[in-house]
Amino acid sequence: MRMSLLAVCLVAVTCAIAGTFVVLRGLAFVGDALAHGVVPGVAVALLAGFSGVLGAAIGAGVMMGGVGVVTRRYRLSSDTAIGLLFVGMLSLGVIIQSRSDSFAGDLTAVLFGEVLGVSNGDLAWQAVALVVIAGVAVVCRRPFLLLSVDEGLAATSGFPVGRYHNVMLAMVALTVVASFQTVGTLLVLGMLVAPAATGALFGRRVASVTAIAAGVGVLSSYIGLLVSYHADLAAGASIVLTSVVIFTVCAGWVELRRWQAHRKDVHHDHDHPHLHEHVHLR
Amino acid sequence: MSASISAARLAVGYGHRPVVSDIDLELLPGQLLVLIGTNGSGKSTLLKTLAGLVAPQEGELSVLGRPAGSSPARVAYLPQHPVSSHTLPLRAHDVVAMGRFARRGLLGRMTRDDVAVIEESMVRTGADAFPHEPLRDLSGGQQQRVHLAQVLSRRAEVLLLDEPTAGLDINGRRLVAELVAEERNRGVTVVMATHELSDADTADTVLLLAQRVVSKGAPSEALTDAALRECFGFTQPH
Hints:
- The structure holds two protein chains of two kinds.
- By secondary structure, chain A is an all-alpha fold.
- Helices cover 88% and strands 0% of the residues of chain A.
- Chain A is built from 13 helices and no strands.
- The N and C termini of chain A lie far apart (68 Å).
- Chain B folds into two domains: 1-41 and 51-74 and 156-238, Rossmann fold; 84-153, no CATH class.
- Chain B has helices at 43-51, 92-97, 101-104, 112-125, 140-152, 170-185, 219-222, 225-232; strands at residues 5-14, 17-27, 32-37, 58-63, 75-78, 158-162, 189-194, 205-209, 213-217.
- Chain B is globular and about 50 Å long.
- The mean pLDDT of chain B is 89.
């Protein structure tokens, strides 16, 4: 249980760093596609008997390359290209896995993870991925921020858009590949988006968005594991659902604050109309 | 004095389809070129070509003596609608600070000069009134002031402004005119796309576009009744 908690906390912090830029740049759909794009890679790896992580990395690479080719060659919008390859890769993964009778359990593990079956090797791999992703985020922070505002702005600031866009996608892909064994390919997107979206509700700087996202991710991991243990629920799904519930509660609270501030303004205007008259007279 | 921007028989467009052809330009430091035309007339495409975002299709183009796009620290570009303005949670101050990234590169430290330039740019545009507000919570006009401050903080020698007065009220428009005048006094060359004919009043050169160059010259030469009728289908009230 302690190993599982440590693993999901590492996943939470990794996803918080990559997820911050996914949310700032609006790449949630890309993250979703990468998460599903790894499935055929893992399936082939399991069939051929090599590392599932390597298979996932190849699957993510094919997905990224495919999106780039379809977008550039056929002048289709990136969400069309992503949608096309996303369903194609997921279907291919399921078909490959369905060719083997013993694959039902493996498919479930790929899609939903095995939080309670984490090994020392998984922990070490996740820690290495965290260090690499943190390093990339620090080094590429400026071009990533410019890309989040406008691609033209990044290009005219001397940062090649294509190169840094690919680095950002590779960072998201590495996050997915490193995390899918723990929380699964379907649920890793939840860890990428929900805590970072909560961070974006309150954070005003990249560091604060990431810090809040990491906090929400770790808290969700702890609560989710606790709930799954006591209520005998699926661990990965409990963690992700907790993070979505935290976002919902926080978003509701922000909305309430806005409503209260609006009411206060209206009452203030009603009580002091002369202030506005004064402004108009000027 | 050497030209900041020079173009000869320049054709701009996307893919194999030219949007505007046969553009000849010669802009000296401190000069203002105003691009006027209907939607889709080629104003933004020409600006993007000058910024190096779109490759020229034909002809010759040099910006500050080099191919367009190869002097990022010396050329600043304001896009028409920065895409994530409505979703970005980052503070206005931090968005303005991004204007210094071209000079500091990937990992260079921000200096005291950078901080001073950022503050000054925010004061000049009025964005200093809301430095800690997230960009997404600002009105369209306030967001535009932040983006203008970011462009000014580049301390560039060439400013490429795509509809800088879009979303601004009368005071905002007056502010843009003042900022452009101040930049020109510093020797900055300004190219501005606009829908407002009045923005061309102080221009050295006006380019009237309608997927081709309808007229070019000083405002009184380029904005004739015949040229305006050909471009827009109506003339300016006298």
